[in-house]
Specification:
This protein is an alpha+beta fold. Helices cover about 35% and strands about 20% of the residues. The two termini are about 40 Å apart.
């Protein structure tokens, strides 16, 4: 709506002689209120769909301060072999009020595929199917498997504290340790829960590239 239209609409809303008696300050205030009333309402982002088909607009319940996103793929062998560690972390920290999501960001994933995949690897975990770039950008994700640890204060937006490897089990393609000796995700979640900044991510992620326009390059 143009400014002159708003002025006319505002003056019509004020009856007769009162409009002519308005001082400059009052007129400006009424005009500003009219402008605000015509602003479009902000819409919540849709992060993806849960396994029940519900559109997910809130990643965690009110009062949750720490959020963990595991970026995974049903057809990535390294991602699949990392599920036991991801499940261990979920079971450990959900008891402390942390919210977890297994995020399936690749364009080729379907609800049927990820439902079957979750049933095989962690049937009690919450899964999110998304073909939108927003959550990939939120997690600063590049590959699967990868973890993002985020926090928020009150109703403020989520802030990314750690994005990177889950542990150091995989050195490079074709070379892995019998078991991890460094647990980056575990350490990062512990730090954020304690109100500390976790150590920054180190090393290259060994896994499968995310096939989504939101993946960082």
């Amino acid at each position: 709506m143009m400014i002159d239209q708003l002025i006319n609409a505002t003056r019509k809303a004020i009856t007769g002689w009162r409009a002519s008696r308005l001082g400059p300050g009052t007129t400006l205030l009424v005009l500003m209120m009219a402008c605000i009333s015509h602003l479009p309402a902000q819409t919540q982002p849709i992060w993806g769909e849960g396994l029940d088909g519900t559109k997910v607009t809130e990643l965690a319940p009110s009062g949750t301060h720490v959020l963990v996103l595991f970026f995974v793929a049903s057809d990535c062998p390294i991602s699949n072999r990392t599920f036991p560690e991801m499940q261990r972390l979920r079971e450990k920290y959900e008891l402390k009020g942390v919210t977890f999501w297994y995020v399936y960001p690749n364009d080729g994933e379907t609800m049927t595929t990820i439902a079957e995949h979750q049933a095989s690897y962690d049937r009690n975990g919450h899964a999110l199917l998304t073909h939108s770039p927003e959550i990939v950008r939120l997690g600063h994700a590049l590959a699967t498997p990868e973890v993002a640890v985020l926090h928020r204060s009150g109703s403020s937006p989520w802030l990314n504290d750690y994005a990177g490897r889950i542990d150091n089990r995989y050195v490079k393609f074709g070379l892995e340790r019998p078991k991890a000796t460094e647990h980056f995700a575990d350490d990062a979640i512990t730090a954020v829960l304690a109100g500390r900044k976790p150590a920054p991510a180190t090393g290259n992620i060994v896994g499968c590239s995310i096939m989504s326009p939101g993946a960082r390059r």
